[in-house]
Design a protein that fits this description.
single chain; 3 helices; elongated
Length: 71
């Protein structure tokens, strides 16, 4: 507990330095390569499809659980 203020100050200083470096890089290169909306749509569709497939498998297994016990 003795050095808590020192550690906190060091962390705040490191964070401030990192933010300043990020802002400097942003001013040098305004094009940061942000992901496009198309990429987001593709990822959302892929995750939704995977969840639908997993849900369908879970429903089928739950429905036919009695028949699958002997396998």
């Amino acid at each position: 507990m003795k050095y808590t203020a020192i550690r906190f100050h060091r962390g705040v200083h490191q964070l401030a330095v990192r933010v300043e470096e990020g802002l400097a890089e942003l001013s040098k290169r305004p094009d940061r390569g942000d992901i496009s909306i198309t990429t987001v749509i593709i990822w959302v569709a892929a995750v939704t499809g995977a969840l639908l497939i997993a849900g369908t498998i879970a429903v089928v297994v739950a429905k036919y659980n009695e028949n699958l016990n002997g396998i």
